[in-house]
Design brief:
By secondary structure, the chain is an alpha+beta fold. It contains 16 helices and 16 strands. The structure holds one RNA strand.
Amino acid sequence: MSARFQAPRGTQDVLPDMQPYWAAVDHAILEVARLFGYRRIDTPQFEAASLFVKGSGDTTDIVEKEMYVFEDRGGDKLALTPEGTPGIARAYLEHGMASWPQPVRLYTTHQMFRYDRPQKGRYRQHTQFDCEVIGSSDALVDAEVIQLLYRTLELLGVNTGLVHLGSIDDLGPRRAYVERLKDYYRPHLEKLSEDSQRRFERNPLRLLDSKDERDQPYKEGAPKLVDQLSPEAEAHMDVVREALEAANVPHVVDPLLVRGLDYYNRTVFEIVPVDDERAQGTLGGGGRYDGLIELLGGPPTPAMGFGSGIERIILEMQKNEVAVAGPAPPDVFLIHRAEGAAAVVTRVAGALRAQGVAVVVGETGRSMKSQFRSADASGARLAVILGEDEVARGVALVKDLRAGGEQREMPIEDMAADATALRAAP
RNA sequence: GCGGGCGUAGCGUAGUGGUUAACGCGUCUGGUUGUGGCCCAGAAGAUCGCGGGUUCGAACCCCGCCGCUCGCCCCA
């Protein structure tokens, strides 16, 4: 109905029924962060657009085609955060975190905005669970970060497949490799798909995971980066694998794994659900970005991190029929029928709440029957009835809705003063 | 950005050119004075996604737009 307002394309409302899933994810994140010693950081939902142009890379799709850029009333060019890492790197520099004990372990959950054609599991606004470890080049940190995401998903009952692990080496060796790759493809350029011809210019690493029929014959013989890593990168990856092995994180080396941002080096990884049949399956991914902080004007500072899409995680939880706890029902549903009972009703409800009793109040003017129906639907254990008769006599009727439906009288003032008897009732 | 499918009350569906668009769930109100869950009855709730066209007549046929969805691109 375009006549009525609707949520902007690619955005969604999280209705009350869905909130338990979000709460479950929040709890899992809190617990895993505690276990691994990560502290929470929150950064703004928008940043200088140039932070992403510089940090994420000006030729990446995210920056070039998908970023929400706007100019504010003061003329500043800003961007809604399309990804999490540059903002955190910026905060690291801005707040002198280099003088904190290194490395700095941080996590956050953050809204991300990307102008893209929406699909299930791909939205224009989505939420990411982000972890970043800044100030260490230790391969054990790489393994730790991967493990952290894996454990989070495990804790949430999400059935992940193997962790896909790769290495894209350091900048110098990678450039040399890209030249070798282009040399290999150049003679066949004419015969490649249009997409791959574009990739040849813009993102040669992507040539290797083309799905187009026409490109298949050339993939086999193409040089693979993981097969010719520099000795340093190879040794680094060996340690990562050894540590993942020891941590019981099942993984596989994926020679075709490429990440979308410019700043990655060495370790890259991705976690996809087991028997994933959809295109937007990736639950999370990340890698090492030793050059980013320096690129943003800081001292050379190694770092490692990941982003994981919470909407996708929840989609998986639902697919796996993971049970999540809903909110507890109220303790008491307060039914009232007296004329002009607003004051008594409000006072009793307030007194009970002050003692920690959860109270939902029935609607004025509705029949007993109707209010009892509401009481039942609310899931409350007790109905407290303040009818005309009771209010006049200064008592309340307390009825147990779950058990036999027994009912007894309690003086209103006693109940308001001390809810202990009510809790025990009847 | 490219290609395919879909769009009927809050939700799930029926109706595929011809009288006041149907059913289930849900909501509300009742089933004799003030008592829930089950049951029964009634009511409210739909400009048939929006706009235009064809036709005596359109939810139904055609076009455009919007939204969802699947694949590609890309990504979480």
